[in-house]
Design brief:
Chain lengths: 272, 272, 272, 272
């Protein structure tokens, strides 16, 4: 397998960028997903340490209570509907949306993402880092960022858009007023037929904008997930890629297969 | 960046093996980590569907209650102690083991794993698939499997050991009596100075064996995590790799950064 | 307030019967409410014990994850519907059944129950203790038990029916095959216009019986909750009352006001 | 049983005061017990409504995630320690404080409370309702309130102290700055050898006061629970009793028997 050996050698030699924000109680949470996240250590090492009976070994472990849309995460296609239809025209019936979760488009149906990644760093275009609060990233901004980066967004790519808000992860108030992608920007992204999109804010969309045509809030969610079948990754940390001016990279994102769930926490990486 | 372009091209052209088991209530759970896992859809599409006010968009979401050692997961170094010391001799004091989790060796300190992966398929060596219940995989088995696969386990590799029990994921009783790696086998693995180990059973170790020297149960946990600093991945699905006789591959595993936690669910992949 | 003084004196002098089963992981759980119950101590005394800074005091506390229909509990009227209508003909619309729970007939709308209690001890009538597995308690059994106890069931009473299964609380298999009240028995109870009913089994109803007329499983749930507005208390421990041959008592049951919930764990008491 | 008949008649004729605050996400939570409380309806009526197969009946149910010290609740004696000893000198060893909770003084060991209740309405004494923020109720205040109410606090009583903050249940900021009982006040209460104490604030104690002698915060917790064996009930709603000038009543409080837990949500009632 010569190809595999090359792949291993190049990947292992590459620099790995960790695009996940740390998860802890107190991190920013979207109001619809509160209380969001909590971890509790419940078994301590001393609990099971009985050397005369079991030798020197002891274990500790904890439990997680969390909404799947907390921290850095990816949305499953079942997360959004358009007039009560999921992507592909699947009607939201009781057979589709069940007490155990979705029987269609649950996150477990999403393959691991191994794709070319491109970073469109809007801060560079707008010369503000982070972008102004609630700034709406236009299609022209996205095109300008691609030109500046000398990349072309191709079908199948992972398209990451940077607002610069990742550094405000410890400031929920400001983070929730982040810049986001506008209605036109989401249409532009969808028309590129990308594998997925991602952003370093809570919602991809700028939350106060409405689609003038349909009246929809979070239009990108509607258009990308429910109409175009393109998953959205939120709360990325794109600071390292930006700092090193990495614009093109191997992007890997592996959603956990929570059967029936509408999303998954993820730790995407970029290798370059 | 010619290296990156090559990396992207090779990786995207590669075949991706998904090494994660599906997660659902009823999957096998180690007795120490019950109730283990449950997902509940709590927001339904109809809950927020008010087209005259908000347009055609609606969202659904759920919540997860889970122990971090459920499903396919990786153990943080803080998960195990030897005479109340973590890897590196860190004493388990109240400053280290706190109400918010571990301040040393929490899972958030583990880098994404991008490594050469090797599969030691013990079923091929022993000519039984799955291996007999509670079979203890010896160092000789591991060496025989490496010879058969024509691979050498090198420092930094991800070493995956196959028992064949992944196919019993829907049969908790049998799955919990799986074959596992013996005391000698764990010593062999640790001496290879690998980046991590993984197995297609609940505990890596064969659970009824005790280290004759120290009296420890789950000796591999003690030796690999607490003494050697080598994380363990459990509940892998190695059936696809075995079927395609893939013995060497790019291995990627990205633990979620739950601050202070003793492990993380993961969806490791192999690319070949 | 002479009445109050008398009340206090008599009540404090009375014998208090605790009708609640202990709650712990591993107690019997109805399959529809699994995993049911778990308690985790997460803050330990040593975590906050810093005498030089805070003096001698330290605190410990934990967390509960539970379905509201676990252990000894009372069903809210919102728990059951008949042809998608709650008690009083309230249609189950998205305004009634919301993401935050029920806006009508949630458990918080139920007043504390302070009522005359009567125990109908069917084991005495049938001369078997516990009753045979899956025995269906008839209206004639209930009437015979009332005669034997020399009590008349009156409107407003708390009507408790004893199968003798409380002593099998540690044996989930047998407990889930308990005797229960038949279709006819539930009709009899409802016709007495009691304040509430209760039983020492998981479901009041015998779970394999179906109403021949409507085809409904758990007919008592349908008839008592959705049609008659009479709450059901499940998993009572009636052994003490039976042992002391107490047939009439002051019954007190105080559902917790979980806003919107379909039931509440309770610790009912009898004072006699 | 003539006594029982009288008891029933008087109790049923009495007025029942509900002393519990409603429970919902967003209610005030002590910082040490966040996120505190959340309820999620996960089974909806429509999920199981299949009339042709199961008749007209359907059920709905939810799940609770909560800390035991949220909402109106009672503290178990295991909740507090003095120099790592629980009430009665029980040392906090790993055998006492375990992964399943406390094996001594868990809330399941607390009997139902059926006692004479007395209300000391400090707002009446101080002529401010609610009391000023962070006001520390003195022993003299408690004695003055008893005189005003013409009651004597006796051993075995349930002693309820009113600050007037219950009406601020919807205003977490102000509620967390409530008046509370001073060090001297807690000593006075303990010296009365009461069955339990309760208050209409988050912590009984005024949270900024320290015991000058030991340096302890929340001195009442230390003194009442760990040293005197007297449980504390928090977040009571005493507005109804105050409005009706009820000073003496039958008090009933039934902690749920969560085995090993350090407290329980309760719905205490007063009957007068």
């Amino acid at each position: 397998m010569p190809g595999t050996s090359d792949l291993i050698r190049t990947a292992v030699a590459g620099r790995v960028y960790d695009l996940e924000q740390p998860r802890m109680a107190g991190m920013p949470i979207h109001p619809a997903h509160r209380p969001g996240y909590t971890y509790h250590l419940h078994r301590r090492h001393r609990d099971g340490y009985l050397p005369e009976k079991f030798g020197p070994r002891s274990g500790a472990s904890g439990l997680l209570f969390m909404m799947e849309h907390t921290g850095t995460h990816i949305d499953a296609l079942s997360h959004q509907a358009s007039d009560l239809r999921l992507y592909g025209g699947v009607e939201v019936t009781p057979q589709v949306e069940t007490v155990k979760g979705f029987t269609v488009h649950g996150i477990e149906t999403m393959s691991p993402i191994v794709a070319r990644g491109v970073l469109l760093d809007i801060c560079g275009v707008r010369k503000q880092d982070p972008l102004p609060e609630r700034y709406r990233i236009t299609a022209a901004d996205l095109e300008a960022a691609a030109r500046l980066a000398e990349v072309t967004v191709e079908p199948g790519d992972a398209l990451l858009v940077r607002t610069g808000y990742a550094k405000l992860w410890n400031d929920e108030d400001r983070y929730l007023r982040a810049a986001g992608v506008s209605v036109e920007g989401s249409k532009w992204a969808a028309s590129r037929r990308v594998r997925c999109v991602g952003c370093d804010n809570m919602t991809w969309d700028e939350t106060e904008e409405r689609d003038p045509e349909s009246g929809a809030t979070l239009f990108g969610h509607l258009h990308l997930l429910a109409r175009s079948g393109i998953p959205i990754i939120e709360n990325l940390d794109l600071e390292g890629l930006s700092r090193d001016r990495v614009r093109e990279f191997l992007f890997i994102c592996t959603p956990l297969k929570f059967v029936g769930a509408t999303g998954s926490p993820v730790r995407p990486i970029a290798v370059a």
